[in-house]
Write a structure and sequence with these properties.
The chain has one domain (39-292): Ferritin. 65% of the residues lie in helices and 2% in strands. The protein is built from 13 helices and two strands; from the N terminus they run H-H-H-H-H-H-H-H-H-H-E-E-H-H-H. Strands 1-2 form a two-stranded antiparallel ribbon. A hairpin with a 4-residue loop joins strand 1 and strand 2 (284-286). The longest helix has 29 residues, at 173-201. Bound molecules: Phenylacetyl coenzyme A (FAQ). Residues 64-65, 68-69, 72-73, 76, 103, 134, 136-137, 152, 156-157, 160, 163-164, 224-228, 233-236, 239, 249, 299 line the site of Phenylacetyl coenzyme A.
């Protein structure tokens, strides 16, 4: 479908003495045409691209979700990066390092997608560092043992895949396309986490216990990654109407529980939830109660590692200032050379 770029529609000529009303009318007509185009694209389940007209609220919602998602990937590097130097073998170090690098890459694709909506990466980073921006609750929990690398890969990346595969069909083109590649990489991440847990589970009784403890600690926070229950999710209705979200928070959480039930058997471990069951009437997986007060505390900045995560990010940003300055100086030099050459 051809994109409608309303920025390129010429201004209407203004009649003498009636400039303001004519301009208003022209603007109103553009808005109406833009809205009609947008509504048609959404109803046809097609894609909105960066230069298309879009409602201000759609742009704002996407910017919120994509920038939060980008921040999550970047902050999410920390719990695992802490374990690179302590990984039990060279092979494990190399795998973990590659995974953490992948998360950095995901952050970059997502910041790029968010930039197409008109906000600069510097602004997004400033908001994160100032503590004004959200990132996923899950990364405010500590990674205490090597088995946590397994639990993060298996549960956290597993939840991320479950949430993000439907986002590959998000109505905003740059976001959906970024998600396709991200999901492929997350799939490798989940398998490496599963494999760490499997090896520990087949190891000594102490190793198996370490794996079980890690699953016990990450299970509930991973379920809360999907966001608040549907009746307490203010953004879901509109995001679903705009084809950004395809399934509700509770639907995805329930699907995820079903996936984990099968996989935990292969691992020889258990989920720390005696209330997990398949409801034959609703055809959905159910789980025990989650502590939504804890979730709210984490979102309010009072989780176990919130201040540590932000402080580390600020430090990394400060430490990287010279790289940004060098890159800017190099880009300036290159553009001067190009201008000289063209003159
Ligand atoms: N944490 O109305 P809803 C990963 C906020 S990537 C923090 O339901 P919505 C990869 C929400 O923002 C993980 N805040 O909101 C990896 C809203 O606040 P606001 C990140 C949360 O947007 C693995 C308020 O609560 N993934 O793990 C959370 O419709 C390993 C009300 O909620 C994404 O970002 C939460 N868990 O649905 C990296 C996926 N949940 O903004 C490294 C894309 C909700 O109004 C290592 N995002 N909130 O002030 C989404 O799918 C959605 O944004 C949801 C939330 C489902 C997260």
């Amino acid at each position: 479908m051809a994109a409608q770029n309303l920025q390129s529609v010429p201004d209407q000529p203004a009649a003498p003495g009636a400039a303001a009303p004519a301009a208003d009318q022209g603007q109103a007509q553009l808005e109406a045409e833009g809205q009609a185009y947008f509504d048609r694209v959404i109803s046809e389940d097609s894609r909105i691209e960066p230069r298309d007209w879009m409602p201000a609220a759609y742009r704002k919602t996407l910017l919120r979700q994509i920038s939060q998602h980008a921040h999550s990937e970047i902050i999410g590097m920390q719990p695992e990066a802490n374990w690179i130097s302590r990984a039990p073998s060279l092979k494990r170090k190399a795998i973990l390092m590659a995974k953490v690098q992948d998360e950095a890459g995901h952050g970059l694709y997502l910041y790029s997608a968010a930039e197409t909506l008109g906000q600069s990466r510097d602004q997004m980073m400033d908001d994160l560092i100032a503590g004004k921006a959200r990132y996923s609750s899950i990364f405010n929990y500590p990674a205490l043992t090597w088995a946590d690398m397994g639990a993060i890969g298996w549960l956290v990346d597993g939840a991320a895949i479950c949430n993000q595969v439907p986002l590959c069909r998000a109505s905003y083109g740059p976001y959906g396309r970024a998600m396709v590649r991200i999901c492929k990489e997350e799939s490798f991440h989940q398998r490496q986490g599963f494999e760490i847990l499997l090896e520990l589970s087949n190891g000594t009784p102490a190793q198996k216990q370490m794996a079980q403890d890690a699953v016990n600690r990450w299970y509930a926070p991973a379920l809360m990654m999907f966001g608040p229950p549907d009746d307490d999710s203010p953004n879901s209705k509109q995001s679903t109407a705009w084809n950004i979200k395809r399934f509700s928070n509770d639907e995805l959480r329930s699907r995820f529980v079903g996936m984990m039930v099968e996989q935990v058997r292969v691992l020889g471990l258990t989920l720390p939830d005696s209330e997990v069951r398949f409801n034959e009437d609703t055809r959905k997986w159910e789980h025990g109660p989650l502590d939504w007060n804890e979730f709210k505390e984490v979102l309010a900045g009072r989780g176990p590692c919130n201040s540590q995560r932000l402080e580390r990010r600020r430090q990394a940003h400060d430490d990287g200032a010279w790289v940004r300055e060098a890159a800017a100086a190099y880009a300036h030099k290159q553009s001067m050379k190009t201008k000289e050459f063209a003159a």
